[in-house]
Write a structure and sequence with these properties.
- The structure is a homodimer of 153-residue chains.
- Helices cover 42% and strands 16% of the residues of chain A.
- The first copy, chain A, has six helices and five strands; from the N terminus they run H-H-H-H-E-E-E-E-H-E-H.
- In chain A, strand 3 and strand 4 form a beta hairpin.
- The N and C termini of chain A lie far apart (37 Å).
- At the A-B interface, strand 5 of A face strand 5 of B.
- Strand 5 of chain A pairs antiparallel with strand 5 of chain B.
- The complex binds manganese (II) ion (2 copies) and zinc ion (ZN) (2 copies).
- Chain A binds a DNA duplex (30 and 30 nucleotides) through helix 4.
Chain lengths: 153, 153
DNA sequence: TGATAAATAGGAGTAGCTACTATATAGGTG
DNA sequence: CACCTATATAGTAGCTACTCCTATTTATCA
Protein backbone atom coordinates (compact mmCIF):
# COMPACT_ATOMS: atom_id res chain seq x y z
CA UNK A 1 0.00 0.00 0.00
CA UNK A 2 1.15 3.49 -0.80
CA UNK A 3 0.65 5.50 2.35
CA UNK A 4 1.51 8.77 0.64
CA UNK A 5 -1.16 8.27 -1.97
CA UNK A 6 -3.73 7.27 0.63
CA UNK A 7 -2.93 10.33 2.66
CA UNK A 8 -3.17 12.61 -0.37
CA UNK A 9 -6.46 11.05 -1.34
CA UNK A 10 -7.77 11.60 2.17
CA UNK A 11 -6.52 15.18 2.10
CA UNK A 12 -8.13 15.77 -1.28
CA UNK A 13 -11.39 14.48 0.10
CA UNK A 14 -11.14 16.69 3.17
CA UNK A 15 -10.32 19.68 1.00
CA UNK A 16 -13.27 19.02 -1.28
CA UNK A 17 -15.65 18.80 1.66
CA UNK A 18 -14.28 22.05 3.11
CA UNK A 19 -14.59 23.69 -0.29
CA UNK A 20 -18.19 22.49 -0.54
CA UNK A 21 -19.05 23.79 2.93
CA UNK A 22 -17.54 27.18 2.07
CA UNK A 23 -19.48 27.27 -1.20
CA UNK A 24 -22.76 26.59 0.63
CA UNK A 25 -22.01 29.34 3.17
CA UNK A 26 -21.12 31.78 0.36
CA UNK A 27 -24.42 31.11 -1.33
CA UNK A 28 -26.33 31.37 1.94
CA UNK A 29 -27.26 27.69 1.88
CA UNK A 30 -27.49 25.80 5.15
CA UNK A 31 -25.05 22.95 5.64
CA UNK A 32 -27.41 20.13 6.58
CA UNK A 33 -26.46 16.53 7.35
CA UNK A 34 -28.45 15.53 4.24
CA UNK A 35 -26.47 17.86 1.97
CA UNK A 36 -23.16 16.70 3.41
CA UNK A 37 -24.04 13.02 3.07
CA UNK A 38 -25.28 13.50 -0.49
CA UNK A 39 -22.17 15.43 -1.47
CA UNK A 40 -19.86 12.83 0.08
CA UNK A 41 -21.68 10.01 -1.71
CA UNK A 42 -21.38 11.84 -5.02
CA UNK A 43 -17.68 12.71 -4.59
CA UNK A 44 -16.85 9.13 -3.60
CA UNK A 45 -18.50 7.70 -6.71
CA UNK A 46 -16.90 7.50 -10.13
CA UNK A 47 -19.95 6.06 -11.84
CA UNK A 48 -21.84 9.32 -12.41
CA UNK A 49 -24.73 8.17 -10.22
CA UNK A 50 -28.41 8.92 -10.68
CA UNK A 51 -30.47 10.35 -7.83
CA UNK A 52 -31.73 6.84 -7.10
CA UNK A 53 -28.15 5.49 -6.84
CA UNK A 54 -27.15 8.29 -4.46
CA UNK A 55 -30.34 7.70 -2.47
CA UNK A 56 -29.47 4.04 -1.92
CA UNK A 57 -25.99 4.95 -0.69
CA UNK A 58 -27.09 7.74 1.62
CA UNK A 59 -29.82 5.66 3.24
CA UNK A 60 -27.00 3.78 4.98
CA UNK A 61 -26.22 6.76 7.17
CA UNK A 62 -29.56 8.58 7.00
CA UNK A 63 -32.28 5.91 6.87
CA UNK A 64 -35.19 8.35 6.78
CA UNK A 65 -33.97 10.53 3.92
CA UNK A 66 -36.40 10.88 1.02
CA UNK A 67 -35.67 10.44 -2.67
CA UNK A 68 -37.15 13.88 -3.28
CA UNK A 69 -34.54 15.43 -1.01
CA UNK A 70 -31.77 13.66 -2.91
CA UNK A 71 -33.17 14.84 -6.24
CA UNK A 72 -33.70 18.41 -5.07
CA UNK A 73 -30.29 18.53 -3.41
CA UNK A 74 -28.42 17.24 -6.46
CA UNK A 75 -30.12 19.92 -8.56
CA UNK A 76 -29.12 22.52 -5.97
CA UNK A 77 -25.52 21.32 -6.28
CA UNK A 78 -25.69 21.89 -10.05
CA UNK A 79 -27.05 25.39 -9.50
CA UNK A 80 -24.24 26.43 -7.17
CA UNK A 81 -21.56 24.76 -9.29
CA UNK A 82 -20.66 21.99 -6.84
CA UNK A 83 -21.66 19.39 -9.45
CA UNK A 84 -23.33 19.15 -12.83
CA UNK A 85 -25.74 17.03 -14.81
CA UNK A 86 -23.97 14.84 -17.34
CA UNK A 87 -25.03 15.47 -20.94
CA UNK A 88 -26.82 12.66 -22.75
CA UNK A 89 -30.38 11.62 -23.36
CA UNK A 90 -32.53 8.78 -22.12
CA UNK A 91 -33.21 7.44 -18.66
CA UNK A 92 -32.39 9.04 -15.36
CA UNK A 93 -30.31 12.20 -14.92
CA UNK A 94 -26.72 11.41 -14.00
CA UNK A 95 -24.57 13.63 -11.78
CA UNK A 96 -20.85 14.40 -11.57
CA UNK A 97 -18.91 16.24 -8.87
CA UNK A 98 -15.67 15.98 -10.85
CA UNK A 99 -15.03 19.58 -11.82
CA UNK A 100 -11.70 19.01 -13.57
CA UNK A 101 -11.78 19.37 -17.34
CA UNK A 102 -12.86 16.08 -18.85
CA UNK A 103 -15.26 14.50 -21.31
CA UNK A 104 -17.62 11.53 -21.27
CA UNK A 105 -18.30 8.43 -23.32
CA UNK A 106 -21.76 6.96 -22.74
CA UNK A 107 -22.57 3.33 -23.52
CA UNK A 108 -26.05 3.19 -25.04
CA UNK A 109 -26.51 -0.42 -23.92
CA UNK A 110 -25.38 -0.60 -20.27
CA UNK A 111 -25.62 3.17 -19.67
CA UNK A 112 -22.14 3.37 -18.15
CA UNK A 113 -20.59 6.82 -18.39
CA UNK A 114 -16.82 6.69 -18.79
CA UNK A 115 -14.54 9.69 -18.20
CA UNK A 116 -11.79 10.59 -20.62
CA UNK A 117 -9.71 13.67 -21.21
CA UNK A 118 -8.65 15.05 -24.57
CA UNK A 119 -7.20 18.56 -24.24
CA UNK A 120 -8.43 19.86 -27.63
CA UNK A 121 -11.98 19.37 -26.30
CA UNK A 122 -11.43 21.52 -23.21
CA UNK A 123 -12.16 24.83 -24.84
CA UNK A 124 -14.27 24.48 -27.94
CA UNK A 125 -14.55 27.66 -30.01
CA UNK A 126 -18.12 28.29 -31.09
CA UNK A 127 -18.98 30.23 -34.25
CA UNK A 128 -20.12 33.84 -33.80
CA UNK A 129 -23.62 32.87 -34.93
CA UNK A 130 -24.01 31.02 -31.61
CA UNK A 131 -21.60 32.78 -29.26
CA UNK A 132 -22.91 36.21 -30.26
CA UNK A 133 -26.59 35.35 -30.28
CA UNK A 134 -27.02 33.12 -27.22
CA UNK A 135 -25.73 32.86 -23.68
CA UNK A 136 -23.84 29.58 -23.70
CA UNK A 137 -23.61 27.96 -20.28
CA UNK A 138 -22.21 24.58 -21.31
CA UNK A 139 -20.38 23.12 -24.27
CA UNK A 140 -18.64 19.78 -24.57
CA UNK A 141 -18.12 16.94 -26.97
CA UNK A 142 -20.88 14.35 -26.87
CA UNK A 143 -19.77 10.76 -27.57
CA UNK A 144 -21.89 7.63 -27.39
CA UNK A 145 -21.65 4.05 -28.57
CA UNK A 146 -20.94 0.59 -27.19
CA UNK A 147 -18.41 0.03 -24.42
CA UNK A 148 -15.87 -2.80 -24.59
CA UNK A 149 -18.06 -5.07 -22.47
CA UNK A 150 -21.19 -4.55 -24.55
CA UNK A 151 -19.51 -4.89 -27.95
CA UNK A 152 -19.01 -8.62 -27.45
CA UNK A 153 -22.71 -9.26 -27.83
CA UNK B 1 -43.19 34.40 -54.35
CA UNK B 2 -40.29 32.48 -55.79
CA UNK B 3 -41.78 29.69 -57.89
CA UNK B 4 -38.44 28.06 -58.55
CA UNK B 5 -37.75 27.75 -54.85
CA UNK B 6 -41.23 26.42 -54.15
CA UNK B 7 -40.85 23.85 -56.85
CA UNK B 8 -37.44 22.77 -55.59
CA UNK B 9 -38.78 22.48 -52.08
CA UNK B 10 -41.67 20.36 -53.30
CA UNK B 11 -39.23 18.19 -55.28
CA UNK B 12 -36.99 17.83 -52.25
CA UNK B 13 -39.94 16.72 -50.21
CA UNK B 14 -41.01 14.18 -52.84
CA UNK B 15 -37.45 12.89 -53.08
CA UNK B 16 -37.20 12.51 -49.31
CA UNK B 17 -40.43 10.56 -49.17
CA UNK B 18 -39.29 8.28 -52.00
CA UNK B 19 -35.97 7.81 -50.25
CA UNK B 20 -37.79 6.90 -47.04
CA UNK B 21 -40.05 4.41 -48.80
CA UNK B 22 -37.02 2.76 -50.43
CA UNK B 23 -35.24 2.61 -47.09
CA UNK B 24 -38.21 0.87 -45.48
CA UNK B 25 -38.40 -1.65 -48.32
CA UNK B 26 -34.63 -2.30 -48.08
CA UNK B 27 -34.96 -3.03 -44.40
CA UNK B 28 -38.02 -5.22 -44.92
CA UNK B 29 -40.30 -2.78 -43.11
CA UNK B 30 -43.86 -2.31 -44.30
CA UNK B 31 -44.81 1.10 -45.60
CA UNK B 32 -47.91 1.80 -43.54
CA UNK B 33 -50.05 4.96 -43.62
CA UNK B 34 -48.99 5.57 -40.02
CA UNK B 35 -45.28 5.43 -40.86
CA UNK B 36 -45.73 7.71 -43.88
CA UNK B 37 -47.76 10.27 -41.93
CA UNK B 38 -45.27 10.26 -39.05
CA UNK B 39 -42.33 10.65 -41.41
CA UNK B 40 -44.01 13.51 -43.28
CA UNK B 41 -44.85 15.29 -40.04
CA UNK B 42 -41.25 14.96 -38.88
CA UNK B 43 -39.72 16.12 -42.18
CA UNK B 44 -42.05 19.13 -42.33
CA UNK B 45 -41.07 20.28 -38.85
CA UNK B 46 -37.99 22.30 -38.03
CA UNK B 47 -38.60 22.32 -34.27
CA UNK B 48 -37.15 18.87 -33.46
CA UNK B 49 -40.52 17.62 -32.22
CA UNK B 50 -41.15 15.20 -29.38
CA UNK B 51 -43.34 12.12 -29.91
CA UNK B 52 -46.23 14.04 -28.35
CA UNK B 53 -45.80 16.95 -30.80
CA UNK B 54 -45.72 14.55 -33.79
CA UNK B 55 -48.75 12.74 -32.36
CA UNK B 56 -50.79 15.97 -32.26
CA UNK B 57 -49.92 16.73 -35.89
CA UNK B 58 -50.60 13.25 -37.22
CA UNK B 59 -53.98 13.00 -35.48
CA UNK B 60 -55.24 15.48 -38.06
CA UNK B 61 -55.03 12.89 -40.82
CA UNK B 62 -55.18 9.70 -38.73
CA UNK B 63 -57.52 10.41 -35.81
CA UNK B 64 -57.26 6.95 -34.25
CA UNK B 65 -53.47 6.70 -34.16
CA UNK B 66 -52.01 5.99 -30.73
CA UNK B 67 -49.17 7.80 -29.01
CA UNK B 68 -47.44 4.46 -28.54
CA UNK B 69 -47.35 3.94 -32.29
CA UNK B 70 -45.80 7.37 -32.76
CA UNK B 71 -43.17 6.67 -30.11
CA UNK B 72 -42.37 3.20 -31.44
CA UNK B 73 -42.28 4.42 -35.02
CA UNK B 74 -39.95 7.34 -34.29
CA UNK B 75 -37.57 4.91 -32.56
CA UNK B 76 -37.79 2.61 -35.58
CA UNK B 77 -36.82 5.57 -37.79
CA UNK B 78 -33.73 6.14 -35.63
CA UNK B 79 -32.80 2.47 -35.94
CA UNK B 80 -32.96 2.47 -39.74
CA UNK B 81 -31.22 5.84 -40.03
CA UNK B 82 -34.20 7.80 -41.33
CA UNK B 83 -33.99 10.09 -38.29
CA UNK B 84 -32.18 10.39 -34.98
CA UNK B 85 -32.73 11.36 -31.38
CA UNK B 86 -31.29 14.78 -30.61
CA UNK B 87 -28.60 14.74 -27.90
CA UNK B 88 -29.38 16.54 -24.66
CA UNK B 89 -30.83 15.70 -21.28
CA UNK B 90 -34.10 16.50 -19.60
CA UNK B 91 -37.71 16.16 -20.67
CA UNK B 92 -39.03 14.33 -23.68
CA UNK B 93 -36.93 12.79 -26.43
CA UNK B 94 -36.68 15.06 -29.45
CA UNK B 95 -36.38 13.81 -33.03
CA UNK B 96 -34.73 15.12 -36.19
CA UNK B 97 -35.06 13.90 -39.78
CA UNK B 98 -32.47 16.41 -41.03
CA UNK B 99 -29.57 14.18 -42.00
CA UNK B 100 -27.29 16.92 -43.36
CA UNK B 101 -24.27 17.71 -41.20
CA UNK B 102 -25.29 20.19 -38.53
CA UNK B 103 -25.18 20.87 -34.81
CA UNK B 104 -27.68 21.97 -32.15
CA UNK B 105 -28.02 24.65 -29.53
CA UNK B 106 -30.54 23.82 -26.81
CA UNK B 107 -32.17 26.50 -24.68
CA UNK B 108 -32.42 25.19 -21.12
CA UNK B 109 -35.35 27.49 -20.36
CA UNK B 110 -37.79 27.18 -23.29
CA UNK B 111 -36.34 23.87 -24.57
CA UNK B 112 -36.08 25.13 -28.13
CA UNK B 113 -33.49 23.29 -30.21
CA UNK B 114 -31.83 25.50 -32.78
CA UNK B 115 -29.83 24.18 -35.73
CA UNK B 116 -26.49 25.62 -36.68
CA UNK B 117 -23.62 24.47 -38.84
CA UNK B 118 -19.93 24.94 -38.10
CA UNK B 119 -17.76 22.84 -40.41
CA UNK B 120 -14.97 22.14 -37.91
CA UNK B 121 -17.56 20.26 -35.82
CA UNK B 122 -18.56 17.93 -38.66
CA UNK B 123 -15.83 15.39 -38.13
CA UNK B 124 -14.46 15.46 -34.61
CA UNK B 125 -11.30 13.39 -34.14
CA UNK B 126 -11.48 11.31 -31.00
CA UNK B 127 -8.38 10.23 -29.07
CA UNK B 128 -7.22 6.62 -29.53
CA UNK B 129 -8.18 5.86 -25.92
CA UNK B 130 -11.83 6.14 -27.02
CA UNK B 131 -11.78 5.33 -30.72
CA UNK B 132 -9.68 2.21 -30.15
CA UNK B 133 -11.50 0.94 -27.09
CA UNK B 134 -15.17 1.56 -27.90
CA UNK B 135 -17.53 1.40 -30.86
CA UNK B 136 -18.52 5.02 -31.33
CA UNK B 137 -21.90 5.42 -33.01
CA UNK B 138 -22.40 9.15 -32.48
CA UNK B 139 -20.26 12.17 -31.71
CA UNK B 140 -21.16 15.83 -31.88
CA UNK B 141 -20.62 19.10 -30.07
CA UNK B 142 -23.10 19.64 -27.27
CA UNK B 143 -24.09 23.27 -26.65
CA UNK B 144 -26.69 24.56 -24.23
CA UNK B 145 -27.62 27.88 -22.66
CA UNK B 146 -30.23 30.61 -22.98
CA UNK B 147 -31.68 31.60 -26.35
CA UNK B 148 -32.09 35.25 -27.33
CA UNK B 149 -35.74 35.28 -26.25
CA UNK B 150 -35.05 33.78 -22.82
CA UNK B 151 -32.03 35.97 -22.00
CA UNK B 152 -34.20 39.05 -21.60
CA UNK B 153 -35.70 37.64 -18.39
C1' DT C 1 -31.40 30.12 24.21
C1' DG C 2 -35.18 31.12 21.57
C1' DA C 3 -37.02 32.88 16.95
C1' DT C 4 -37.47 32.09 12.21
C1' DA C 5 -36.63 31.32 7.58
C1' DA C 6 -34.98 27.42 5.25
C1' DA C 7 -34.94 22.56 4.58
C1' DT C 8 -36.78 17.93 4.87
C1' DA C 9 -40.03 13.66 4.98
C1' DG C 10 -43.67 11.53 3.24
C1' DG C 11 -46.88 11.09 0.06
C1' DA C 12 -49.61 12.32 -3.95
C1' DG C 13 -49.47 13.71 -8.72
C1' DT C 14 -47.58 13.88 -13.49
C1' DA C 15 -44.90 13.22 -17.87
C1' DG C 16 -42.99 10.26 -20.79
C1' DC C 17 -42.39 6.37 -22.02
C1' DT C 18 -42.88 0.84 -22.39
C1' DA C 19 -45.09 -3.66 -22.25
C1' DC C 20 -49.12 -6.36 -23.36
C1' DT C 21 -52.71 -8.31 -26.24
C1' DA C 22 -56.45 -8.48 -29.39
C1' DT C 23 -57.34 -6.74 -33.95
C1' DA C 24 -56.11 -5.12 -38.50
C1' DT C 25 -53.35 -4.94 -42.62
C1' DA C 26 -49.16 -4.76 -46.13
C1' DG C 27 -47.35 -7.36 -49.23
C1' DG C 28 -46.19 -11.86 -50.99
C1' DT C 29 -48.40 -16.27 -53.12
C1' DG C 30 -51.23 -19.17 -56.01
C1' DC D 1 -57.26 -10.69 -57.71
C1' DA D 2 -58.45 -13.06 -53.37
C1' DC D 3 -56.18 -15.18 -49.76
C1' DC D 4 -52.60 -15.90 -46.17
C1' DT D 5 -49.48 -14.67 -42.57
C1' DA D 6 -46.09 -12.24 -40.36
C1' DT D 7 -45.92 -7.61 -39.15
C1' DA D 8 -47.90 -3.50 -37.35
C1' DT D 9 -51.32 -0.96 -34.77
C1' DA D 10 -54.86 0.64 -31.09
C1' DG D 11 -56.06 0.75 -26.71
C1' DT D 12 -54.80 0.22 -22.26
C1' DA D 13 -52.27 -0.88 -18.24
C1' DG D 14 -47.96 -0.36 -15.88
C1' DC D 15 -43.67 1.78 -14.78
C1' DT D 16 -39.76 5.07 -13.99
C1' DA D 17 -38.14 9.29 -12.84
C1' DC D 18 -39.13 12.92 -11.39
C1' DT D 19 -42.01 17.14 -9.29
C1' DC D 20 -45.30 19.28 -6.28
C1' DC D 21 -47.52 19.85 -1.79
C1' DT D 22 -47.78 20.43 3.17
C1' DA D 23 -46.83 19.53 7.90
C1' DT D 24 -42.81 19.08 10.67
C1' DT D 25 -38.05 19.78 11.79
C1' DT D 26 -33.76 22.23 12.11
C1' DA D 27 -29.45 25.30 11.00
C1' DT D 28 -28.29 29.67 11.83
C1' DC D 29 -28.41 34.00 13.95
C1' DA D 30 -29.65 37.64 17.31
MN1 LIG E 1 -17.21 12.68 -15.32
MN1 LIG F 1 -31.41 19.53 -36.29
ZN1 LIG G 1 -21.78 -1.00 -22.11
ZN1 LIG H 1 -35.27 29.95 -24.83
Amino acid sequence: MNHKKDKNTADDFGAKIQCFVDLCRDRGLRVTPQRLAIYKALVNSDEHPSAEMVYEKVRGSLPTISLDTVNRTLLTFSEIGAAFVVEGSGGARRFDAGLDNHQHFKCVKCNRIIDFHHEPFDDIELPASIDGRFTVSRKTVYVEGLCELCQSH
